[in-house]
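Final report, closing paragraph on structural work. Over the funding period we assembled a curated collection of sequence-structure pairs, and we close with a single example.
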Amino acid sequence: MRNNRSQGLHFYEKKKTVSHEQIAQVLSWIAISVGAVLFAWVVVYAWGAKTVVIGDSMSPKLVNGQEILIDRIRYNMFQPKPGDIIVFKPNGNENVHTYVKRVVAVPGDTVQISNGVLYLNGEAKPDMFPDSIADPGVAATEITIGEDEYFVMGDNCNFSEDSRTPNIGNVRFDTIIGRAWYHMAGGNMGIGRVK
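Its predicted structure, as stored:
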């Protein structure tokens, strides 16, 4: 006669054991995940910040509504240089949106706009703004940039409120939030470094 017990259902399974190696591997993955989240937080909130471009004054490089990341640390060690795209609050006014413009002149430089052409330190720079600059604003007469000040303009200069207007004027160093670092998708630009 056969043993019927061996052919029936078994409700008791062998107890599975978890090895120390498996526990170490799980803890390792948790530590890596927590580290990655902390690193991302430090990059975005401590080192950088995010803002949105308002208007088309920097087109075609940056367009209205495009998000950009700001490097807030660089100018703790270095001064802005011509060609940098900076983010600032005009006159330090916290109640207005951030402005995004290109540095044209640095402390000690002279700036003048005559016959639609930018003159930097007495030298014509027609390739900086290929379109004729329609409104020279305060730069119709030669301006010397003061200590800790920067003359900025939008790349799309005929549709830009910048250092040429009295309500913006030269940008003081202490009003600069940082350098535009990366731009996010917007228009046809995709993701990439801001130059």
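The longest strand covers residues 176-183. Residues 187-191 have pLDDT under 50 and may be disordered. We thank the funder for supporting this effort.
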